[in-house]
Amino acid sequence: MLAALPAPYNAGDLENGRRAFARCRSCHTITPGGPNMAGPNLYGVFGRQAGALDKYSYSHALRSAGFTWDADKLDHWLENPKTFLPGNKMTFAGLRDATDRRDVIAFLKVETGYAPETAKAAATATAPAS
Known about the structure:
By secondary structure, the chain is an all-alpha fold. The protein has 6 helices and no strands.
């Protein structure tokens, strides 16, 4: 799966990403149907509208952010959540190291149901007509 990710995430270190994500596990789950905790479940986060996961109480800043989560947005968020989107309620100070952020994003892409665009296009092209 790592090789199918777009650059630079295809060069990520999943073990480092897993270790770095350990700081996030006290607030976030990443399994399908996993519970929301202090932070929302992150399964399916890529392609999800910010502040739109059902049954999670987001800050006004996230509910009104008006963007969809992608790797670039998540990278900036992880670097410093407070300056990326002032008014959010996340207390995490951020991951300053760019390599750690790359690896966490690669780890999340592998673990949260991300499907590269080429895989989505192939699945759509081979799906039977209804």
